[in-house]
Amino acid sequence: MIYREYGSTGKMVSALGFGGMRFKDIKDIDTCVSMMLTAARGGVNYFDTAPKYFGTGSEEAFAKGLATMRNENLPYYLSTKTDESHPDCIRREIDAQLKRLDVNYIDFYHIWCITSLDNWRERKKNGVLETFIKLKEEGLIKHICVSSHLIGDDIKELLMEEIFEGVLFGYSAYNFKTRQAAFDAITDRRIGCVVMNPLGGGIIPGNPEIFRFLQTVPDETVVQAALRFLFAHQEITISLVGFETEEQVNEALAAANSPLQLSPDKLKQIKKNATVSLEGICTGCQYCDHCPVNIPIPKYMDAYNQKILSDSKTAITDRLFWHWNLKPEDAAACIECGRCEEECTQHLNIIERLKEISVLPSK
């Protein structure tokens, strides 16, 4: 396992992190715990969850997994988050989290899901920073972190606070070109850099032929190649993978524990070989899924991905019909309120895409 120092905290963390947001069956606690133990026994020591992953289900599963890890003397660091901003709400949230997780403190606690500078400024105005500082002084959290979906230079405003010890940030082989400015802003500071969606929310393993450019040896899977691509970035502290199955855990461990490491020159060559334009792909985070006229936007954006990732002229309508049982014309119900674009972590032009879909012929 590769280990790196988390910013300037002095804590050595595994380059592969375990994300608790994609368990295949959250009700099957024994399997969830088994996955965590497989990761921990394989050298993973960074485990990340959140209070809204499967409701509170992920944190509840983590409680049992962490307890077993303690019994086996398996080391770990715990990461979780809150999207609350008012002091009283944050206090209630973390009290509930500590109880659910059955721990006395959280190692890495994140101000969660900053999607715009307006969102950040409002939460800052509400006192989120002062509250986090107090939680750290009380020993309830060890390190103050932020989870950001800002791109370009916008993220610099967050880092100007000089309070954050780590950033959770979207970066992968499919979006490295559009995220480079934000990535550079993070690495300019000596803070922990954890990348989420390292497999593009399933896009990379779902399109192995398109991402074949990542592979450097014949027998590695595209998932392993995508992870090695990230491990080769010395500035990235942790690549946080959300696992559905134990098989996926083992596949990622094989990449993290492999002696094959990419040189800086090889990394540059891989980026140069990324000839397919992957900008503008929806990662399926579902933050846009609150349409006032009940358009299932994530499903329509998933269908639009097929246009980007396929040469087929009927890719969108095929996906809507066969996968989602939706009609393209129903996208015309959009009232262009803009709420979905405000929430979009990829900053996609959702309204334009819905218009484009709405005039396609139905199957």
Give an account of the 3D structure:
With 363 residues, the protein is an alpha/beta fold. It has helices at 29-41, 57-71, 87-101, 117-125, 128-137, 155-159, 176-187, 203-206, 222-231, 246-256, 264-272, 297-309, 315-324, 339-343, 350-358, and strands at 3-5, 12-14, 16-19, 46-48, 77-82, 106-114, 141-148, 166-170, 192-196, 238-242. The strands form two sheets. Strands 3-4-5-6-7-8-9-10 form an eight-stranded parallel β-barrel, surrounded by six helices. Helix 3 links the parallel strand 5 (77-82) and strand 6 (106-114). Helix 1 (29-41) runs parallel beside helix 10 (246-256) and helix 12 (297-309) packs across helix 13 (315-324).
Q: Helix and strand layout, with pairings?
A:
Elements: E1 3-5, E2 12-14, E3 16-19, H1 29-41, E4 46-48, H2 57-71, E5 77-82, H3 87-101, E6 106-114, H4 117-125, H5 128-137, E7 141-148, H6 155-159, E8 166-170, H7 176-187, E9 192-196, H8 203-206, H9 222-231, E10 238-242, H10 246-256, H11 264-272, H12 297-309, H13 315-324, H14 339-343, H15 350-358
Parallel strand pairs: 3-4, 3-10, 4-5, 5-6, 6-7, 7-8, 8-9, 9-10
Antiparallel strand pairs: 1-2
Helix pairs in contact: 1-2, 1-10, 9-10, 12-13, 12-15
Labels describing this entry:
2 domains; 15 helices
Gist of the model:
This protein has 363 residues and is an alpha/beta fold.
Q: Which structural category do the helix and sheet elements fall into?
A: alpha/beta
Number of E strands? 10
Give the number of helices. Answer: 15
Question: Runs with pLDDT <50, length 5+?
Answer: none
CATH class of the largest domain: Alpha Beta
| CATH homologous superfamily title of the largest domain | NADP-dependent oxidoreductase domain
Helix content: 40-55%
